[in-house]
Amino acid sequence: MEFVVFALFAVLAVLGAIGVVVARNPVHSAVALLVSLLSVAALFLVLWAEFIAVVQIMVYAGGVMVLFLFVIMLVDLEQRGFDLGAGRIGPRPSAFERGLWSVAAVAFGALVVSLMVRSLDLPLPGADRATTMLQGPYAADGRGLGNTEWIGMLLYTDWLIPFELASVLLLVAIIGAVVLARRDQADEYAGKGAA
Amino acid sequence: MTLAIEHVLVASALMLTVGMVGLLIRRNAIVMFMAVELVLNAANLNLIGFSRFLPDPVGQVFVVFVIVIAAAEVAVGLAIVLALYRNRDTVMVDEASTMKW
């Protein structure tokens, strides 16, 4: 049952990802991305990460998605055609170049898959911690993993400094986004003075 | 068939590959940012998968940090896209070639 739900949403997530890449209209890409992100949230639920699943829905579906759609609406939707290959700048690559890139792509894929398979043979550390967690004070529901309490405990003890640094990073990102996106006021005043 | 770490890794690798391909073949900066989100989500899926099967809740703490970084990245990145559009009237990355030698 667990596997069926996981496979269903994994297929949906990958299909959504493919939709993001191949959609001609950026709005369609955004909707496909939403499908993919919500499917990943469902995968998180299957993998006992309830808190992360809710954060995923709130931050991605709520925040990032709205930001993407705003920017798509603000810029010109009548872009010059589809950007996949069409109207590429520079000469078409030769057969040799294309063959080289194909070999490189296949080699990269093989490397990723082989690393993935190899990593499975390595002994997983921390297996002894499993029993501690499963019998820990927060194991009221019989699993003890994925609870908000566990994440909160870790965030405010072991990972306190990274957590506080993340808030500084968010502040910098807010200021940076505002500075980058606003119109230059000096130009407007200069324009008024000239007129 | 019971769920195992291999299934999570396969799903994650597929999402990562699709995101990387999107990053490489699209020229629209907004769609490229969406592809970056796919790559980051694939990484998150991996972390959550190992957190589930080790099991170790620290993986979920890492995912919180990745989500924070991704949100900051997308806010600044889309602001850059807006500034690019305002100055150059395009969001295609290969048309922003002023600094290209």
Biggest interface pair, counts: A-B, 81 and 71 residues
Find the count of extended strands of chain A (DSSP E, 2+ residues): 0
Low-confidence stretches of chain A: 124-143
Strand content of chain A: under 5%
| Secondary structural class of chain A | mainly alpha
Task: Categorize the overall geometry of chain B.
Answer: elongated
Radius of gyration of chain A over alpha carbons?
Answer: 24 Å
Q: Mind telling me which CATH architecture of one domain in chain A this is?
A: Up-down Bundle
Alpha carbon gap, first and last residue of chain A: 71 Å
Helix content of chain B: over 70%
Main sheet record of chain A: none
Q: Which structural class matches the secondary elements of chain B?
A: mainly alpha
- What is the radius of gyration of chain B? 17 Å
CATH-defined topology of one domain in chain A: Four Helix Bundle (Hemerythrin (Met), subunit A)
Walk me through this protein's architecture:
The complex is a heterodimer of chains A (about 200) and B (about 100). Helices cover about 75% and strands about 0% of the residues of chain A. By secondary structure, chain A is mainly α. Among the domains of chain A are: about 80 residues, NADH-ubiquinone/plastoquinone oxidoreductase chain 6, subunit NuoJ (Four Helix Bundle (Hemerythrin (Met), subunit A), Up-down Bundle), CATH 1.20.120.1200; about 35 residues, no CATH class. The longest helix of chain A has 27 residues. The radius of gyration of chain A is 24 Å and the shape is extended. Chain B has 3 helices and no strands. The longest helix of chain B is centred in the last third of the chain and has 31 residues. The chains are: A mainly alpha (about 200), B mainly alpha (about 100). At the A-B interface, α1, α2, α3, α4 and α5 of A face α1, α2 and α3 of B.
